[in-house]
């Protein structure tokens, strides 16, 4: 069965075509980075307007790369939240129109569920149950994934998301947008122990996260410095990255130990970070836990992960009708 997936929850316009066994036949992402970097962050209205302009050719490109036509598509899956509501509305309205015109099934998908399960796209050895860490620009959450659509939220951020902290710190250091990749690059030249920064453990047992104190500490170090050299920026970037990674790694493996789960999976845009990947992999190995991740193209926003989840919902008969309405704060 061939189906189309659409994702427009934030600033990337994405479409994918999946075939039998969730084989990804195409996955197109039209990034809006160039537009939003002018403002140092995402401007919601501009994001919605750009989705309006892009959605048609992104879908056409996905169909053409998969060498199928709309007549081959048996269902359309679309992100219904959480995210920027103006952005979500573009994808949902487009998907509804396709479903109506082609008389095919419509399936709404939770964006965070897409991220959480994205490592399944490329890891046939990853089976339930597993501990999943979703770290992106909007989310930092730790889940026990027991089965398809059966998740327990073990911990989440009480303030900023990890990716948001990367973006805000990059802006403070005047490194550009999005912050994750530029901080990672700058940190390669720095000493991660050079500047003492706090780790918010929130108590020995807590699986929640907090990154706003760390962000403030970076701002304080920067203010104290006066003259800021390139070396200082590199040290600050490396020390910040170290603090974020320490907390993400420790809490993920604490969850695996507490729930006696032998597999951990890392997902979301921040999981593109090479240093996080390396540290999580080493820590998992030393604890005898399997470690799984998706390639970077499936870590950041993409429609393949939406198709993966949508196909299971479809198989379970969880089909939406035309009253489908996106929700900016949809929980998982
Ligand atoms: O999953 P995603 O594309 O969108 C959301 O759902 O938020 O994640 C985007 C986030 C941004 O905050 C970006 O700075 C972060 O992922 N990111 C990274 C890296 N690449 C992207 N963070 C740290 N290191 C990276 N290499
Ligand atoms: Zn995302």
Bound molecules: 5'-O-[(R)-(carboxyoxy)(hydroxy)phosphoryl]adenosine, zinc ion
Q: How big is the Rg?
A: 20 Å
Total discrete domains: 2
The CATH H-level homologous superfamily of the largest domain: ATPase, nucleotide binding domain
Percent of residues in helices comes to 40-55%
Strand order of the biggest β-sheet: 3-2-1-4-5
Largest sheet: 5 strands, mixed
Beta percentage is: 15-25%
CATH class annotation of the largest domain: Alpha Beta
Please trace the helix and strand order, writing H or E for each element. EEEHHEHEHEEEHHHHEHEHH
Shape: globular
CATH fold-level assignment of the largest domain:
Nucleotidyltransferase, domain 5
Mean pLDDT, to the nearest integer, reads 96
Write structural notes for this entry.
The chain has 332 residues and is of the alpha/beta class. The protein folds into 2 domains: 3-116 and 299-315, Nucleotidyltransferase, domain 5 (2-Layer Sandwich); 127-293, ATPase, nucleotide binding domain (Nucleotidyltransferase, domain 5, 2-Layer Sandwich). Helices cover 43% and strands 18% of the residues. The protein has 11 helices and 10 strands. The chain has helices spanning 33-36, 44-65, 85-102, 111-117, 162-172, 179-187, 212-225, 230-258, 274-286, 296-299, 304-315, and strands spanning 3-7, 13-18, 24-30, 75-81, 105-110, 130-135, 140-147, 150-156, 263-267, 290-293. It has a 5-stranded mixed sheet, sandwiched between helices. The protein has a 5-stranded mixed sheet with strand order 8-7-6-9-10, with helices on both faces. α9 (274-286) links the parallel β9 and β10. The model has no long low-confidence stretch (mean pLDDT 96). It binds 5'-O-[(R)-(carboxyoxy)(hydroxy)phosphoryl]adenosine (KG4) and zinc ion (ZN). The site of 5'-O-[(R)-(carboxyoxy)(hydroxy)phosphoryl]adenosine has 19 residues, from α5 and α6.
């Amino acid at each position: 069965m061939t189906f189309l997936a659409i994702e427009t929850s934030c600033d990337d316009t994405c479409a994918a075509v999946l075939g039998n066994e969730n084989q990804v036949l195409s996955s197109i992402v039209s990034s809006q980075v160039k537009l939003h970097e002018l403002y140092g962050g995402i401007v919601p209205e501009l994001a919605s307007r750009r989705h309006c302009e892009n959605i048609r050719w992104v879908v056409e490109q996905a169909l053409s790369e998969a060498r199928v036509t709309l007549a081959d598509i048996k269902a359309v899956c679309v992100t219904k939240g959480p995210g920027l509501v103006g952005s979500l509305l573009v994808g949902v309205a487009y998907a509804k129109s396709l479903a109506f015109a082609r008389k095919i099934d419509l399936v709404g998908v939770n964006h965070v569920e897409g991220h959480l399960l994205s490592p399944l796209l490329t890891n046939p050895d990853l089976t339930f149950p597993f501990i999943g860490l979703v770290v992106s620009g909007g989310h930092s959450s730790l889940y026990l994934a027991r089965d398809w659509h059966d998740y327990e939220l073990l911990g989440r951020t009480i303030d900023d998301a990890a990716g948001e902290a990367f973006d805000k710190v990059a802006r403070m250091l005047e490194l550009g947008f999005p912050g994750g990749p530029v901080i990672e690059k700058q940190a390669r030249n720095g000493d991660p122990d050079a500047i003492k920064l706090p780790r918010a453990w929130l108590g020995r047992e807590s699986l929640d996260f907090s990154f706003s104190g760390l962000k403030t500490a970076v701002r304080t170090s920067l203010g104290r410095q006066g003259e800021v050299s390139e070396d200082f920026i590199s040290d600050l970037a490396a020390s910040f990255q170290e603090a974020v990674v320490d907390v993400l790694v420790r809490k993920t493996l604490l969850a695996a130990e507490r729930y006696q789960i032998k597999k951990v999976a890392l997902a979301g845009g921040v999981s593109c970070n090479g240093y996080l990947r390396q540290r999580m992999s080493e820590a998992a190995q030393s604890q005898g836990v399997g470690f799984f991740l998706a390639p970077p193209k499936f870590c950041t926003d993409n429609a393949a992960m939406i198709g993966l989840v949508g196909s299971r919902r479809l198989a379970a008969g969880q089909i939406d009708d035309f009253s489908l309405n996106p929700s900016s704060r949809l929980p998982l």
